[in-house]
Design brief:
The protein is of the alpha+beta class. It has a domain of about 210 residues: Beta Polymerase, domain 2, CATH 3.30.460. It contains 22 helices and eight strands. Helix 11 packs antiparallel against helix 12 and helix 19 runs antiparallel to helix 20. It comes from Cylindrotheca closterium.
Amino acid sequence: MSDSAEGEKEQAKSLSLIELLNVESSWLSDLDSELKKDASVSEKAESFYTNTVGFLQSKALLDEAAARKLPRNFMDSVSSFKAEPESLQLQMPMDASLDPLEMDLDAVYEIASLTLPKFKSIVTDIVVQAGLDPEEAIQFDKDLDIQLRHLVLAPLKGRGRALEKIRSDYGGKNAKLLDVVRCSIIVHTEEELFKVAEALDNNTQQGDFTVIRCKNRFKEPLFNGYRDALYTIRVPVTQADNNKMVEHCCEVQVHLSELVFHKSTSHIYYEYFRSFFSGNVAAADERMVVLERVVGKEPHATLHETIESSIATDNTTQLEALLQLLGEDNMTEYTLACRVAHRLVTLSLEYLSEDPSLDHSIALLVRLGRLLRLAYKYEQAEIVLSKTRHAASSILGPEHRLTLSACENHAILMAEIRRYDESKTLHRTTLEIRERVLGPEDPDTLSSCQVLAIVLDKPGHYEEARPYFARAYEGRRKALGPDHRDTMDSANGLAVIDMMNGQYDSAESIFRATIKTQKEKYGLDHAKTKWTGNNLAGLLMICGRDEEAQQLALEIGLD
Protein backbone atom coordinates (compact mmCIF):
# COMPACT_ATOMS: atom_id res chain seq x y z
CA MET A 1 0.00 0.00 0.00
CA SER A 2 1.30 3.46 -0.96
CA ASP A 3 2.00 6.13 1.64
CA SER A 4 -0.91 8.22 0.38
CA ALA A 5 -3.30 5.28 0.59
CA GLU A 6 -2.08 4.48 4.10
CA GLY A 7 -2.59 8.12 5.07
CA GLU A 8 -6.14 8.10 3.72
CA LYS A 9 -6.87 4.94 5.66
CA GLU A 10 -5.64 6.53 8.92
CA GLN A 11 -7.66 9.67 8.19
CA ALA A 12 -10.77 7.53 7.72
CA LYS A 13 -10.13 5.79 11.06
CA SER A 14 -9.73 9.17 12.77
CA LEU A 15 -13.03 10.42 11.39
CA SER A 16 -14.62 7.14 12.43
CA LEU A 17 -13.33 7.63 15.98
CA ILE A 18 -14.85 11.12 16.15
CA GLU A 19 -18.19 9.74 14.94
CA LEU A 20 -18.21 6.74 17.24
CA LEU A 21 -17.37 8.88 20.26
CA ASN A 22 -20.18 11.22 19.24
CA VAL A 23 -17.93 14.16 20.06
CA GLU A 24 -20.26 16.62 18.32
CA SER A 25 -22.83 16.01 21.04
CA SER A 26 -22.40 17.84 24.32
CA TRP A 27 -21.06 15.05 26.57
CA LEU A 28 -17.39 16.00 26.25
CA SER A 29 -17.96 19.73 26.74
CA ASP A 30 -20.41 19.03 29.58
CA LEU A 31 -17.72 16.97 31.26
CA ASP A 32 -15.30 19.89 30.98
CA SER A 33 -17.83 22.22 32.64
CA GLU A 34 -18.43 19.76 35.49
CA LEU A 35 -14.72 19.27 36.10
CA LYS A 36 -13.99 22.98 36.00
CA LYS A 37 -16.70 23.56 38.60
CA ASP A 38 -15.44 20.81 40.92
CA ALA A 39 -11.68 21.01 40.43
CA SER A 40 -10.60 23.38 43.19
CA VAL A 41 -6.96 23.40 44.27
CA SER A 42 -6.49 22.39 47.90
CA GLU A 43 -4.39 24.38 50.34
CA LYS A 44 -2.03 21.42 50.62
CA ALA A 45 -1.54 21.29 46.85
CA GLU A 46 -0.88 25.04 46.66
CA SER A 47 1.65 24.78 49.50
CA PHE A 48 3.39 21.98 47.66
CA TYR A 49 3.56 24.07 44.49
CA THR A 50 4.91 27.15 46.33
CA ASN A 51 7.64 25.05 47.92
CA THR A 52 8.38 23.44 44.56
CA VAL A 53 8.99 26.83 42.93
CA GLY A 54 11.25 27.92 45.80
CA PHE A 55 13.04 24.59 45.76
CA LEU A 56 13.81 24.74 42.03
CA GLN A 57 14.95 28.36 42.23
CA SER A 58 17.24 27.50 45.14
CA LYS A 59 18.61 24.50 43.24
CA ALA A 60 19.30 26.73 40.22
CA LEU A 61 21.38 29.08 42.39
CA LEU A 62 23.37 26.14 43.77
CA ASP A 63 23.93 24.75 40.28
CA GLU A 64 25.10 28.17 39.08
CA ALA A 65 27.51 28.51 42.02
CA ALA A 66 28.78 24.98 41.45
CA ALA A 67 29.41 25.73 37.78
CA ARG A 68 31.65 28.60 38.83
CA LYS A 69 33.54 26.85 41.63
CA LEU A 70 32.96 23.14 41.17
CA PRO A 71 36.19 21.28 41.94
CA ARG A 72 36.30 19.17 38.80
CA ASN A 73 39.59 17.42 39.64
CA PHE A 74 38.41 16.45 43.11
CA MET A 75 35.04 15.41 41.76
CA ASP A 76 36.61 13.14 39.14
CA SER A 77 39.51 11.71 41.15
CA VAL A 78 38.01 10.98 44.60
CA SER A 79 35.68 8.01 44.51
CA SER A 80 32.88 7.20 46.91
CA PHE A 81 33.43 3.91 48.75
CA LYS A 82 32.47 1.77 51.73
CA ALA A 83 35.06 -0.32 53.55
CA GLU A 84 34.50 -4.03 54.00
CA PRO A 85 33.31 -5.98 55.93
CA GLU A 86 29.86 -4.50 56.50
CA SER A 87 30.36 -4.76 60.27
CA LEU A 88 32.65 -1.72 59.99
CA GLN A 89 29.54 0.32 59.15
CA LEU A 90 28.11 -0.32 62.63
CA GLN A 91 28.74 1.30 66.00
CA MET A 92 30.47 -0.87 68.62
CA PRO A 93 28.98 -1.66 72.04
CA MET A 94 31.13 -1.21 75.16
CA ASP A 95 31.17 -4.98 75.57
CA ALA A 96 32.67 -6.41 72.37
CA SER A 97 30.96 -9.75 73.01
CA LEU A 98 27.53 -8.19 72.45
CA ASP A 99 25.75 -7.97 69.09
CA PRO A 100 26.02 -4.36 67.76
CA LEU A 101 22.55 -4.63 66.20
CA GLU A 102 21.09 -5.07 69.68
CA MET A 103 22.50 -1.76 70.96
CA ASP A 104 20.03 0.71 72.41
CA LEU A 105 20.29 4.43 71.70
CA ASP A 106 21.58 5.24 75.18
CA ALA A 107 24.58 2.98 74.55
CA VAL A 108 25.34 4.79 71.26
CA TYR A 109 25.22 8.18 72.97
CA GLU A 110 27.34 6.97 75.91
CA ILE A 111 30.21 6.01 73.58
CA ALA A 112 29.66 9.15 71.49
CA SER A 113 30.20 11.33 74.58
CA LEU A 114 33.38 9.38 75.37
CA THR A 115 34.64 9.87 71.78
CA LEU A 116 33.88 13.58 71.37
CA PRO A 117 37.09 15.03 72.97
CA LYS A 118 39.38 12.81 70.88
CA PHE A 119 37.38 13.53 67.73
CA LYS A 120 37.77 17.26 68.35
CA SER A 121 41.55 16.83 68.64
CA ILE A 122 41.68 14.73 65.44
CA VAL A 123 39.71 17.10 63.22
CA THR A 124 41.55 20.14 64.57
CA ASP A 125 44.83 18.49 63.49
CA ILE A 126 43.31 17.68 60.08
CA VAL A 127 42.44 21.34 59.47
CA VAL A 128 45.90 22.49 60.58
CA GLN A 129 47.61 19.90 58.36
CA ALA A 130 45.56 21.25 55.45
CA GLY A 131 47.16 24.67 56.06
CA LEU A 132 44.03 26.28 57.52
CA ASP A 133 43.37 28.05 60.80
CA PRO A 134 40.50 26.23 62.57
CA GLU A 135 39.39 29.48 64.26
CA GLU A 136 39.56 31.71 61.18
CA ALA A 137 36.16 33.15 60.32
CA ILE A 138 34.68 32.45 56.91
CA GLN A 139 33.67 35.67 55.17
CA PHE A 140 30.27 35.68 53.51
CA ASP A 141 28.12 38.42 52.07
CA LYS A 142 27.70 41.20 54.66
CA ASP A 143 23.91 40.88 54.43
CA LEU A 144 23.97 37.16 55.19
CA ASP A 145 23.76 36.51 58.90
CA ILE A 146 26.05 33.47 59.08
CA GLN A 147 29.06 33.20 61.40
CA LEU A 148 31.23 30.20 60.53
CA ARG A 149 34.87 29.13 60.80
CA HIS A 150 37.03 26.67 58.90
CA LEU A 151 36.21 24.09 61.58
CA VAL A 152 32.66 23.85 62.92
CA LEU A 153 32.27 21.27 65.69
CA ALA A 154 28.63 20.31 66.13
CA PRO A 155 27.10 19.16 69.42
CA LEU A 156 25.96 15.54 69.59
CA LYS A 157 23.14 14.89 67.16
CA GLY A 158 19.72 15.65 68.64
CA ARG A 159 17.85 12.55 69.75
CA GLY A 160 14.68 13.55 67.91
CA ARG A 161 16.41 13.61 64.53
CA ALA A 162 18.41 10.51 65.48
CA LEU A 163 15.22 8.56 66.20
CA GLU A 164 13.69 9.76 62.93
CA LYS A 165 16.68 8.49 60.93
CA ILE A 166 16.79 5.19 62.82
CA ARG A 167 13.11 4.58 62.09
CA SER A 168 13.07 5.77 58.48
CA ASP A 169 16.53 4.79 57.18
CA TYR A 170 17.98 2.10 59.43
CA GLY A 171 15.12 -0.28 60.13
CA GLY A 172 15.15 0.50 63.85
CA LYS A 173 18.83 -0.49 64.25
CA ASN A 174 20.55 2.08 66.48
CA ALA A 175 24.06 0.86 65.61
CA LYS A 176 23.63 2.05 62.02
CA LEU A 177 23.57 5.69 63.16
CA LEU A 178 27.09 6.87 62.32
CA ASP A 179 26.90 10.65 62.70
CA VAL A 180 26.04 11.35 66.35
CA VAL A 181 29.56 12.85 66.54
CA ARG A 182 30.23 15.11 63.57
CA CYS A 183 31.89 18.27 62.31
CA SER A 184 32.12 20.49 59.24
CA ILE A 185 35.33 21.64 57.57
CA ILE A 186 34.86 24.59 55.22
CA VAL A 187 37.40 25.32 52.48
CA HIS A 188 37.62 28.01 49.80
CA THR A 189 39.47 26.25 46.98
CA GLU A 190 39.93 22.92 45.30
CA GLU A 191 43.54 22.85 46.51
CA GLU A 192 42.36 23.10 50.13
CA LEU A 193 39.81 20.36 49.46
CA PHE A 194 42.59 18.05 48.29
CA LYS A 195 44.71 18.92 51.34
CA VAL A 196 41.91 17.90 53.70
CA ALA A 197 41.49 14.61 51.81
CA GLU A 198 45.25 14.00 51.98
CA ALA A 199 45.35 14.75 55.72
CA LEU A 200 42.52 12.27 56.32
CA ASP A 201 44.41 9.64 54.31
CA ASN A 202 47.75 10.29 56.09
CA ASN A 203 46.23 10.04 59.56
CA THR A 204 44.47 6.81 58.58
CA GLN A 205 47.81 5.32 57.54
CA GLN A 206 49.31 6.35 60.88
CA GLY A 207 46.52 4.50 62.71
CA ASP A 208 44.94 7.52 64.41
CA PHE A 209 41.58 6.48 62.95
CA THR A 210 40.19 4.61 59.93
CA VAL A 211 38.23 6.13 57.05
CA ILE A 212 35.51 3.56 56.41
CA ARG A 213 33.26 5.48 54.04
CA CYS A 214 33.39 8.39 51.63
CA LYS A 215 30.45 10.02 49.86
CA ASN A 216 31.70 12.36 47.14
CA ARG A 217 28.59 14.47 46.67
CA PHE A 218 30.50 16.96 44.54
CA LYS A 219 30.12 14.23 41.94
CA GLU A 220 26.66 12.98 42.95
CA PRO A 221 24.88 15.95 44.57
CA LEU A 222 21.80 15.84 46.79
CA PHE A 223 18.43 16.22 45.07
CA ASN A 224 18.41 19.91 46.05
CA GLY A 225 21.71 20.50 44.24
CA TYR A 226 23.91 20.77 47.34
CA ARG A 227 27.41 19.35 46.97
CA ASP A 228 29.94 18.32 49.61
CA ALA A 229 32.09 15.36 50.67
CA LEU A 230 31.22 13.18 53.66
CA TYR A 231 33.81 10.99 55.38
CA THR A 232 32.93 8.45 58.06
CA ILE A 233 35.86 7.61 60.36
CA ARG A 234 36.20 5.00 63.11
CA VAL A 235 37.91 6.58 66.11
CA PRO A 236 39.51 4.32 68.77
CA VAL A 237 38.93 5.43 72.37
CA THR A 238 39.89 3.84 75.67
CA GLN A 239 37.36 3.31 78.45
CA ALA A 240 38.58 4.92 81.66
CA ASP A 241 37.07 2.32 84.02
CA ASN A 242 38.52 -0.84 82.48
CA ASN A 243 41.19 0.40 80.03
CA LYS A 244 39.51 -1.46 77.16
CA MET A 245 39.38 0.07 73.68
CA VAL A 246 36.21 0.66 71.71
CA GLU A 247 35.81 2.26 68.26
CA HIS A 248 33.13 4.80 67.43
CA CYS A 249 32.06 6.01 63.97
CA CYS A 250 32.00 9.78 63.42
CA GLU A 251 31.29 11.98 60.40
CA VAL A 252 33.50 14.66 58.82
CA GLN A 253 31.68 16.89 56.35
CA VAL A 254 33.84 18.90 53.94
CA HIS A 255 32.17 21.92 52.34
CA LEU A 256 33.08 24.49 49.70
CA SER A 257 32.43 27.99 50.98
CA GLU A 258 30.84 29.19 47.74
CA LEU A 259 28.13 26.57 48.17
CA VAL A 260 27.71 27.01 51.93
CA PHE A 261 26.62 30.56 51.14
CA HIS A 262 23.41 29.13 49.61
CA LYS A 263 22.93 26.21 51.99
CA SER A 264 20.71 27.94 54.55
CA THR A 265 18.06 28.66 51.91
CA SER A 266 18.33 25.31 50.17
CA HIS A 267 18.10 23.43 53.47
CA ILE A 268 14.59 24.79 54.07
CA TYR A 269 13.46 23.01 50.91
CA TYR A 270 15.64 20.00 51.68
CA GLU A 271 13.63 19.48 54.86
CA TYR A 272 10.30 19.96 53.04
CA PHE A 273 11.10 17.60 50.15
CA ARG A 274 13.22 15.03 51.99
CA SER A 275 10.35 12.51 52.09
CA PHE A 276 9.21 13.30 48.55
CA PHE A 277 12.67 12.57 47.17
CA SER A 278 13.58 9.70 49.47
CA GLY A 279 14.11 6.40 47.73
CA ASN A 280 16.64 5.50 45.08
CA VAL A 281 18.35 7.88 42.66
CA ALA A 282 16.35 6.82 39.61
CA ALA A 283 13.03 7.48 41.36
CA ALA A 284 14.28 10.89 42.55
CA ASP A 285 15.47 11.80 39.04
CA GLU A 286 12.07 10.91 37.57
CA ARG A 287 10.30 13.13 40.10
CA MET A 288 12.71 15.99 39.50
CA VAL A 289 11.94 15.95 35.76
CA VAL A 290 8.20 16.09 36.53
CA LEU A 291 8.62 19.07 38.90
CA GLU A 292 10.77 21.00 36.45
CA ARG A 293 8.25 20.52 33.65
CA VAL A 294 5.33 21.53 35.86
CA VAL A 295 6.98 24.76 37.03
CA GLY A 296 8.54 25.71 33.69
CA LYS A 297 11.08 28.47 33.05
CA GLU A 298 8.77 31.28 34.14
CA PRO A 299 6.76 29.97 37.11
CA HIS A 300 3.28 31.21 37.91
CA ALA A 301 2.47 32.36 41.43
CA THR A 302 0.03 29.51 42.14
CA LEU A 303 -0.77 25.98 41.05
CA HIS A 304 -4.23 27.16 39.99
CA GLU A 305 -2.65 29.67 37.59
CA THR A 306 -0.26 27.01 36.30
CA ILE A 307 -3.11 24.62 35.50
CA GLU A 308 -5.24 27.31 33.85
CA SER A 309 -2.30 28.59 31.82
CA SER A 310 -1.24 25.14 30.58
CA ILE A 311 -4.83 24.43 29.52
CA ALA A 312 -5.24 27.81 27.82
CA THR A 313 -1.92 27.67 25.99
CA ASP A 314 -2.18 23.99 25.02
CA ASN A 315 1.19 23.27 26.60
CA THR A 316 1.11 19.48 26.28
CA THR A 317 4.52 18.96 27.92
CA GLN A 318 3.37 20.83 31.01
CA LEU A 319 -0.05 19.15 30.92
CA GLU A 320 1.55 15.69 30.87
CA ALA A 321 3.80 16.63 33.80
CA LEU A 322 0.83 18.02 35.73
CA LEU A 323 -1.04 14.80 35.12
CA GLN A 324 1.85 12.82 36.62
CA LEU A 325 2.18 15.16 39.60
CA LEU A 326 -1.54 15.31 40.39
CA GLY A 327 -2.17 11.62 39.79
CA GLU A 328 -2.02 8.45 41.80
CA ASP A 329 1.66 8.21 42.71
CA ASN A 330 2.17 11.75 43.94
CA MET A 331 -0.51 14.20 45.08
CA THR A 332 -3.64 12.07 44.45
CA GLU A 333 -5.58 15.20 43.42
CA TYR A 334 -7.75 13.13 41.09
CA THR A 335 -10.37 15.73 40.15
CA LEU A 336 -7.64 18.16 39.10
CA ALA A 337 -5.93 15.33 37.23
CA CYS A 338 -9.23 14.60 35.43
CA ARG A 339 -9.41 18.19 34.22
CA VAL A 340 -5.87 18.03 32.86
CA ALA A 341 -6.51 14.64 31.25
CA HIS A 342 -9.70 15.98 29.68
CA ARG A 343 -7.75 18.82 28.04
CA LEU A 344 -5.18 16.37 26.67
CA VAL A 345 -8.02 14.27 25.22
CA THR A 346 -9.69 17.24 23.53
CA LEU A 347 -6.39 18.46 22.10
CA SER A 348 -5.64 15.00 20.74
CA LEU A 349 -9.06 14.78 19.09
CA GLU A 350 -8.77 18.30 17.67
CA TYR A 351 -5.47 17.46 15.98
CA LEU A 352 -6.56 14.09 14.59
CA SER A 353 -7.19 15.58 11.14
CA GLU A 354 -3.61 16.92 11.02
CA ASP A 355 -1.86 14.14 12.94
CA PRO A 356 -3.94 10.97 13.02
CA SER A 357 -2.35 9.48 16.17
CA LEU A 358 -5.34 7.26 16.81
CA ASP A 359 -3.69 5.00 19.39
CA HIS A 360 -2.57 8.00 21.44
CA SER A 361 -6.10 9.44 21.50
CA ILE A 362 -7.64 6.15 22.64
CA ALA A 363 -4.96 5.67 25.30
CA LEU A 364 -5.72 9.16 26.66
CA LEU A 365 -9.45 8.37 26.75
CA VAL A 366 -8.80 5.20 28.76
CA ARG A 367 -6.60 7.21 31.12
CA LEU A 368 -9.32 9.84 31.55
CA GLY A 369 -11.90 7.14 32.33
CA ARG A 370 -9.60 5.59 34.92
CA LEU A 371 -8.97 8.95 36.64
CA LEU A 372 -12.70 9.71 36.71
CA ARG A 373 -13.20 6.38 38.48
CA LEU A 374 -10.47 7.23 41.01
CA ALA A 375 -12.18 10.60 41.59
CA TYR A 376 -15.44 8.69 42.32
CA LYS A 377 -17.11 10.26 39.29
CA TYR A 378 -18.63 6.94 38.31
CA GLU A 379 -21.34 8.21 35.98
CA GLN A 380 -18.84 10.20 33.91
CA ALA A 381 -16.34 7.33 33.97
CA GLU A 382 -19.04 5.00 32.65
CA ILE A 383 -19.71 7.34 29.71
CA VAL A 384 -16.04 7.72 28.80
CA LEU A 385 -15.08 4.05 29.16
CA SER A 386 -18.15 2.60 27.44
CA LYS A 387 -17.76 4.98 24.46
CA THR A 388 -14.00 4.34 24.27
CA ARG A 389 -14.43 0.59 24.50
CA HIS A 390 -17.03 0.57 21.69
CA ALA A 391 -14.97 2.88 19.45
CA ALA A 392 -11.71 0.97 19.97
CA SER A 393 -13.36 -2.37 19.27
CA SER A 394 -15.00 -1.06 16.10
CA ILE A 395 -11.86 0.62 14.70
CA LEU A 396 -8.94 -1.40 16.07
CA GLY A 397 -10.70 -4.70 16.60
CA PRO A 398 -11.82 -6.55 19.75
CA GLU A 399 -8.37 -8.12 20.31
CA HIS A 400 -6.25 -4.96 20.08
CA ARG A 401 -4.24 -4.02 23.19
CA LEU A 402 -6.00 -0.69 23.60
CA THR A 403 -9.44 -2.24 23.20
CA LEU A 404 -8.58 -4.75 25.90
CA SER A 405 -7.23 -1.96 28.11
CA ALA A 406 -10.55 -0.15 27.77
CA CYS A 407 -12.37 -3.40 28.61
CA GLU A 408 -10.23 -3.95 31.70
CA ASN A 409 -10.80 -0.44 33.05
CA HIS A 410 -14.53 -0.67 32.31
CA ALA A 411 -14.68 -4.00 34.15
CA ILE A 412 -12.93 -2.47 37.18
CA LEU A 413 -15.51 0.33 37.19
CA MET A 414 -18.33 -2.22 37.00
CA ALA A 415 -17.01 -3.92 40.13
CA GLU A 416 -16.78 -0.61 42.00
CA ILE A 417 -20.42 0.19 41.24
CA ARG A 418 -21.42 -3.34 42.32
CA ARG A 419 -22.10 -4.80 38.88
CA TYR A 420 -20.08 -7.85 39.95
CA ASP A 421 -21.42 -10.44 37.50
CA GLU A 422 -20.82 -8.17 34.50
CA SER A 423 -17.39 -7.31 35.84
CA LYS A 424 -16.29 -10.92 36.32
CA THR A 425 -17.57 -11.90 32.87
CA LEU A 426 -15.73 -9.05 31.16
CA HIS A 427 -12.54 -9.69 33.15
CA ARG A 428 -12.55 -13.39 32.28
CA THR A 429 -13.16 -12.64 28.61
CA THR A 430 -10.35 -10.07 28.57
CA LEU A 431 -7.97 -12.50 30.28
CA GLU A 432 -8.82 -15.28 27.83
CA ILE A 433 -8.15 -13.05 24.81
CA ARG A 434 -4.90 -11.72 26.26
CA GLU A 435 -3.65 -15.23 27.06
CA ARG A 436 -4.41 -16.36 23.52
CA VAL A 437 -3.26 -13.29 21.60
CA LEU A 438 -0.49 -11.82 23.78
CA GLY A 439 0.71 -14.88 25.67
CA PRO A 440 0.47 -15.97 29.32
CA GLU A 441 3.46 -13.91 30.52
CA ASP A 442 2.66 -10.64 28.77
CA PRO A 443 2.35 -7.70 31.22
CA ASP A 444 -1.22 -7.03 30.06
CA THR A 445 -2.17 -10.68 30.64
CA LEU A 446 -0.71 -10.49 34.13
CA SER A 447 -2.66 -7.28 34.69
CA SER A 448 -5.85 -9.18 33.86
CA CYS A 449 -4.90 -11.81 36.45
CA GLN A 450 -4.38 -9.08 39.03
CA VAL A 451 -7.67 -7.23 38.49
CA LEU A 452 -9.71 -10.44 38.23
CA ALA A 453 -8.21 -11.48 41.57
CA ILE A 454 -9.26 -8.12 43.05
CA VAL A 455 -12.84 -8.59 41.85
CA LEU A 456 -12.90 -12.12 43.31
CA ASP A 457 -11.39 -10.83 46.57
CA LYS A 458 -14.63 -11.13 48.50
CA PRO A 459 -15.72 -13.32 51.44
CA GLY A 460 -16.28 -16.84 50.19
CA HIS A 461 -14.06 -16.37 47.13
CA TYR A 462 -10.60 -15.97 48.69
CA GLU A 463 -9.46 -19.43 47.62
CA GLU A 464 -10.58 -18.70 44.06
CA ALA A 465 -8.78 -15.35 44.02
CA ARG A 466 -5.43 -16.52 45.40
CA PRO A 467 -4.14 -18.37 42.26
CA TYR A 468 -4.70 -15.23 40.17
CA PHE A 469 -2.82 -13.05 42.66
CA ALA A 470 -0.02 -15.63 42.85
CA ARG A 471 0.23 -15.87 39.07
CA ALA A 472 0.31 -12.07 38.69
CA TYR A 473 2.96 -11.74 41.39
CA GLU A 474 5.27 -14.48 40.11
CA GLY A 475 4.88 -13.39 36.49
CA ARG A 476 5.55 -9.73 37.25
CA ARG A 477 8.49 -10.54 39.52
CA LYS A 478 10.07 -12.54 36.72
CA ALA A 479 9.27 -10.13 33.88
CA LEU A 480 9.46 -6.72 35.60
CA GLY A 481 11.65 -7.33 38.64
CA PRO A 482 10.85 -7.37 42.37
CA ASP A 483 10.96 -3.57 42.75
CA HIS A 484 8.52 -2.72 39.95
CA ARG A 485 5.37 -1.00 41.20
CA ASP A 486 3.11 -3.60 39.53
CA THR A 487 5.03 -6.45 41.17
CA MET A 488 4.62 -4.82 44.58
CA ASP A 489 0.90 -4.28 43.94
CA SER A 490 0.54 -8.00 43.26
CA ALA A 491 2.56 -8.85 46.36
CA ASN A 492 0.20 -6.73 48.44
CA GLY A 493 -2.84 -8.45 46.98
CA LEU A 494 -1.37 -11.90 47.59
CA ALA A 495 -0.50 -11.01 51.20
CA VAL A 496 -4.01 -9.67 51.86
CA ILE A 497 -5.55 -12.91 50.54
CA ASP A 498 -3.23 -14.95 52.77
CA MET A 499 -4.25 -12.76 55.72
CA MET A 500 -7.95 -13.30 54.98
CA ASN A 501 -7.31 -17.05 54.77
CA GLY A 502 -5.60 -17.02 58.17
CA GLN A 503 -2.11 -17.64 56.74
CA TYR A 504 -0.60 -14.92 58.90
CA ASP A 505 3.07 -15.93 58.70
CA SER A 506 3.00 -15.97 54.90
CA ALA A 507 1.16 -12.63 54.75
CA GLU A 508 3.58 -10.96 57.18
CA SER A 509 6.61 -12.21 55.26
CA ILE A 510 5.27 -10.79 51.98
CA PHE A 511 4.22 -7.47 53.55
CA ARG A 512 7.62 -6.97 55.18
CA ALA A 513 9.57 -7.79 52.00
CA THR A 514 7.34 -5.43 50.00
CA ILE A 515 7.54 -2.51 52.39
CA LYS A 516 11.33 -2.87 52.60
CA THR A 517 11.55 -2.56 48.80
CA GLN A 518 9.12 0.36 48.73
CA LYS A 519 11.04 2.24 51.43
CA GLU A 520 14.26 1.83 49.45
CA LYS A 521 12.70 2.84 46.14
CA TYR A 522 10.08 5.45 47.08
CA GLY A 523 10.73 6.44 50.69
CA LEU A 524 8.44 6.45 53.71
CA ASP A 525 6.09 9.21 52.58
CA HIS A 526 4.96 7.59 49.33
CA ALA A 527 1.34 6.46 48.99
CA LYS A 528 2.40 2.93 48.03
CA THR A 529 4.64 2.55 51.11
CA LYS A 530 1.84 3.79 53.37
CA TRP A 531 -0.62 1.39 51.75
CA THR A 532 1.58 -1.62 52.53
CA GLY A 533 2.34 -0.24 56.00
CA ASN A 534 -1.38 0.09 56.72
CA ASN A 535 -1.99 -3.50 55.62
CA LEU A 536 0.87 -4.80 57.76
CA ALA A 537 -0.28 -2.79 60.78
CA GLY A 538 -3.74 -4.31 60.37
CA LEU A 539 -2.27 -7.81 60.30
CA LEU A 540 -0.23 -7.14 63.45
CA MET A 541 -3.35 -5.96 65.26
CA ILE A 542 -5.28 -9.08 64.18
CA CYS A 543 -2.45 -11.11 65.72
CA GLY A 544 -2.69 -9.15 68.98
CA ARG A 545 0.63 -7.35 68.43
CA ASP A 546 -0.76 -3.86 69.02
CA GLU A 547 2.51 -2.36 70.24
CA GLU A 548 4.32 -3.42 67.05
CA ALA A 549 1.45 -2.03 64.98
CA GLN A 550 1.66 1.32 66.77
CA GLN A 551 5.42 1.46 66.27
CA LEU A 552 4.98 0.76 62.56
CA ALA A 553 2.27 3.43 62.30
CA LEU A 554 4.66 5.93 63.88
CA GLU A 555 7.49 4.96 61.52
CA ILE A 556 5.38 5.20 58.34
CA GLY A 557 3.38 8.20 59.50
CA LEU A 558 -0.01 6.51 59.31
CA ASP A 559 -3.09 8.40 60.47
